[in-house]
Specification:
Layout: H1 2-31, H2 52-68, H3 80-103, H4 107-123, E1 130-131, E2 137-138, H5 141-161, H6 168-188, H7 192-195, H8 198-217, H9 226-247, H10 250-256, H11 262-275, H12 278-293, H13 306-313, H14 317-336, H15 343-377, H16 410-417
Antiparallel strand pairs: 1-2
Helix pairs in contact: 1-2, 1-8, 2-3, 2-8, 2-9, 3-4, 3-9, 4-5, 5-9, 5-12, 6-8, 6-9, 6-14, 8-9, 10-11, 11-14, 14-15
Length: about 425
Amino acid sequence: MRIVLYALVGGTAAVVSLVISIALWRLSIRYRLYPKAIRARDVHTRPTPRLGGVAMFLGIAVAFAVASRLDAFRLVFTDGAQVLAILGAALVVVVVGVIDDLIDLDWTIKLAAQIVAAAVLVFGGVQLFALPIGGISLLSPNISLTLTVLSVVLVMNAINFIDGLDGLVAGVTIIANLVFFLYAYSLNVDNRIDYFNLASLIAVTLGGACAGFLVLNWHPAKLFMGDAGALLTGLLMATSAISVTTWVDPQEVEGNLVGRSDVVGALIPIVLPFAILVVPLLDFGLAVLRRLRAGKSPFSADRQHLHHRLLDMGHSHLHAVLIFYAWTTVVAVGCLLPLFVHWGWAIAFVAAGLVVASIVTLLPLTRRKAVEQLVQSARPDVVAGSARYDPLDRDAARLDEEGERERMPQAEYTRLATGAIPIVEDPT
């Protein structure tokens, strides 16, 4: 019965998100509500509406309204300030995100809006009051406020940074929130009251909203979630993680472990929120370091994110997205498995998954290296265009003075990667 109620709420978010996504797509096409220019860092080649975040927000809002009418969720809505704070903060980032999607705001304005949204959460009672370190460690008010704001802003930007391929953020969010929901479920399966909590409700509604939106966002996408959707996703994922981290006692987690390991049990509440966001956080960290080292703002745009690098290696759009899904699944599920199987099996799963994911990720690179060696070892008058293919130890993604990448046409690279190298007759 409990799963049915969560399915009802998540299904509501999915249906509303899908219906409104279709409506917004049609309106955007009819009234040209999308940027007319294609940016140098964009992967798509035609203007595409970016109002999917509005549909996701409305889907989540309606799902919250449905949950508020269900008796099982009465404790979640007892403290109305928290729920209003979450919806209010979400509205702030969605409004600013929509404006940015239409007219491209300066990054300082977006950052200020993110801080305001995080502050709304804090003053509404959504805050890191404690951390599960050595039991429940209470935080001072100043540290609590600072960590909460930093965490929310960090996750929002991390999600926004990877929003560059069709279906990428929506799919990663669905996987992450499913894992997070199962985590909360495993801790509360014997307690009906605690089972219906704010973190689980957010995970289900956000996952449902992304599922409905993904129908129009799957490659080739008709609608993008834009900054509004990416910031909304990051905000809610951070909120659900904060909610769980605050009230979960590591001793409670240890008691749920199949294979007893106090060390593993103590680490799960701390590691899992990072594990489900491993790909966005990695991309965010690399981007910030890369830009600071170049003397640029951490929020300046470029075309060197992880998804761009996968495309440059030779992966197709769909394969790059599936690789992101795979890495997210391996790490997130691996951290969750000790609650269901012996921790040794969980480590084996992660090890095997990382090996397979690494092989799949690097496979085009080895194929390209073989093609380059073949082309460079042949005579220029025998293999057409051989001068184009630089060795891999040189930067294949050179940037000219305007920051636009010189890139081999995809069709030409595909012919080479499959061995279809154009041969010309030897004049001798």
